[in-house]
Amino acid sequence: MKILFDQGTPVPLRKILPDHSITTTYELGWQTLENGNLITEAEADGFDVIQVAVSVVCSLRCDSIPLISLVVSLTAMPFDVR
Question: Residue 40 forms beta bridges with which residues?
Fold first, then answer.
């Protein structure tokens, strides 16, 4: 599965998802994309899932229903991934 980590998603979470291809918005230069623009770019690039922070979803407004899945984390680091 191709997963995109948005700003605020702890990169160490990659350790618990070793069988998936994980990229961050920073690595793609997308850290400034907001709201529906990030979803549009992620869909066009073939991502299956976007991991986002809860504040992003609260402000999200899209003209269309995204075809991509959003995973929302309620805290910055919900569990220890060491």
Answer: none
